[in-house]
Design brief:
Elements lengths: L5 E4 L2 E4 L2 E4 L3 E4 L5 E6 L9 E9 L6 E9 L4 E3 L5 E2 L2 E2 L3 E3 L2 E9 L4 E10 L5
Antiparallel strand pairs: 1-4, 2-3, 5-6, 6-13, 7-12, 8-13, 9-10, 9-13, 11-12
Length: about 130
């Protein structure tokens, strides 16, 4: 099933047996992105490093600006400073407690931004 990214419309009028159509008008739809998260290991021991990858897909035909990314570092792990990247470029997120956040300035139409960071497994109690 295809996703509708715009709405098109044409009006018509009939006169003396002739049908006359208007120009086509288009409204582009602002669609929410899709977000998919993965981790490189399904099992890990204390001291191992986990790499999280998050894909934010812009499925619309309009660019998205100022997309605020947020993720919490899981309990039992610590964020590894300087491991945060957006589209392969090292950037510095805002760290508040165990939450990482970053403002992605632009995700072009029909494209994906990839956020990645690492955390070291420390264990502990729940």
């Amino acid at each position: 099933m295809a996703i509708i990214t715009s709405i098109n419309n044409v009006a018509s009028a009939s006169f003396n047996g002739n049908t006359i159509e208007s120009n086509n008008v288009t409204t582009q739809l602002e669609l929410d992105p899709t977000v998919t998260k993965s981790v490189d290991k399904s099992t890990a021991a204390i001291g191992e490093v986990l790499t999280y990858s998050i894909e934010i897909a812009n499925i619309s035909e309009l660019a998205m600006s100022n997309v605020v990314f947020s993720d919490s570092v899981p309990v039992g792990s610590n964020y590894i400073t300087n491991s945060f990247t957006v589209n392969g470029e090292s950037v510095t997120p805002t760290v508040t407690g165990s939450t990482l956040s970053y403002n992605i300035q632009n995700i072009p139409a029909s494209s994906t931004a990839t956020v990645s960071f690492q955390a070291i497994v420390i264990g502990g109690e729940v």
